[in-house]
Amino acid sequence: MRTRLPSRTVGLMSTATVFVAVWGCGDSAPSTDTSSTPATVSGTITLKGKPATQGKVTFNPANVNRKTVPSATVDIGKDGSYKVSTLTGENTVTVDTPELRKNPTE
């Protein structure tokens, strides 16, 4: 008979494993992206399960190795969709909609 771990237990175990792997990497600085490879990113912004109808999405690929790289901002479509070009690797993503400004804690 096989025993299944609850999904929460598996998630906690995965998180602990990642933490230990990062924690034990030694004295060197963490790696940061240096890529200048462009990428197209698209998606849909939803709030409480419904598409956002207006606003902006910003992707910021800048970091210590890519200090002068500009952010890319795009309008959210009426159906909640967006499509933007940025750089591959880690990006900070910001979403700004009138709905979020009205209710920032939701």
Reconstruct the topology from this structure.
Blueprint (H helix, E strand, L loop, with lengths): L6 H17 L14 E7 L1 E2 L2 E2 L4 E5 L11 E4 L5 E7 L4 E5 L1 H5 L4
Radius of gyration: 19 Å
Shape: elongated
Total beta-strand segments: 7
Order the strands across the largest sheet as they lie in space.
Answer: 5-4-7
| Secondary-structure content class | alpha+beta
List the defining traits of the structure above:
single chain; alpha+beta; two-stranded antiparallel sheet; 7 strands; elongated
Structural features, described:
This protein is of the alpha+beta class. Helices cover 21% and strands 30% of the residues. The protein is built from two helices and seven strands; from the N terminus they run αβββββββα. The protein has helices spanning 7-23, 98-102, and strands at 38-44, 46-47, 50-51, 56-60, 72-75, 81-87, 92-96. The chain has a three-stranded antiparallel sheet. A two-stranded antiparallel ribbon has the order 1-6. It is elongated. The termini are far apart.
Quick take:
With 106 residues, the protein is of the alpha+beta class. It has helices at residues 7-23, 98-102, and strands at residues 38-44, 46-47, 50-51, 56-60, 72-75, 81-87, 92-96. It contains two helices and seven strands.
